[in-house]
Amino acid sequence: MGTESLKQAAYTEALQEARGASPENGEAGGELSPKEFKKLFMKFSGMSISFWFSFCFCSYLTIFLQSIGWDSVRVGIINSLNNAVGVFSTPFWGTISDKLRSIKKILIILIIASAVTYFLIPFVDVSVLGISLLFIVIPFSNFFRMPLSSLIDNWTVRACNKHGMNFGAIRSTGSVSFGIVGITLGFVITKINEVTQSNKGTRLTFTLFAVSIFILLLVVMSIEDDLNSRSAKRLRFRDMHFGELFKNYYYMTYLVYAMVIQVPLACVYAFLPYLMSEVNVDSATIGYITGFKAFIEVPMLLLMDRVRNKVPLYYLLFASGALYMGEALGYSLCTGFWGILAISTLQGLAGGLHIAAGSNYVATLAPADLKATAQTLNGSMVSLAGIIGNLAGGFIIAALGIRIFYRLAAVLILFGLIFYIGSFPFGERVLHIPKPKIQKHGVGISH
What we know:
By secondary structure, the chain is an all-alpha fold. It is built from 16 helices and 2 strands. A hairpin with a 2-residue loop joins strand 1 and strand 2 (131-132). The two termini are 23 Å apart. Residues 18-30 and 442-447 have low confidence and may be disordered.
């Protein structure tokens, strides 16, 4: 799953569960002294910082595959396999955490497994019967890595809901961490590759991830798992009553829109190294772009609480869609590094808006007893779209070129945006369904 998809799915899951918290289940209204409050805030901020610090190294996976000669078709296939794993891995580990009544215990298992399996990736670049073992090892590693973001955000938001902390402020520290590491890697990895005249710098990112993620392990172990005995049991697929959501017009139109635009968005960033090669830019410098766009997300996360009280959330989704379309079209016209960096500004703004606004919008539309179902369905559709997008994207790039791919991506986003904007007057004037109203930021709910 792409970075933005992963972030959105994680934010959605965490937010939906937090919105379901109540004094009755013991996950709201916790009382802490100022000193305890500050200490807890710092620990959860440390968890966000250390998680995104380590995960920035994963940005070089496509660069590594490109450096060993993989074309866009094979990269598209591996990304599709990763998305397929994402459809099942997060619900699976979520169910296990519910059975154990502990997110913390599962995080410890996943962190250790992620460190080991991701570290092994550059060492299994061998083929058996003509098939690279990377087609097995990378998705297997993703089975452990992908749920980390969801579970960490889930734990953080529920703690924010219980103790009155601000999720946006905590999550922003992670974006800043990601940005700093990304920019640093853009310089360091490029220099190592130049000096060694090889991909040793790129290969080094796998080791750095495996080492740095143990900082996250130490932080996780330092946090008290005070939600473990009162966690609500997560719904399984067979327990979900999808029929009720299918009757919710505005939820379903958003779901269709989200899936349509996610088909191109799942691979717009994933295939960026091929655009960089097209314009003769060292793809190892992608860290500069990764870090820069992470910094752009920060204002969106910090301002969302205020903005959503004044502007309908679907207006923000319109804006994010337009920015995403501009990003894809802009990439198709880029001729050098600075152009790509400038266009990535649109991605940072769009991503920040879509992650927060989309999650809040689903929360306001879903009935109280179907919020978990709504977020699970939304997350699954995003992963399924990623499978389609990466498979199609890889073949399109191979057949027509990277610039045509980005132009087609822009067109598909435009069609999705036109459909979504048009769904509101159609729903109100033809179906006589009132448009969703602004819902003020609720007391005791942290973002």
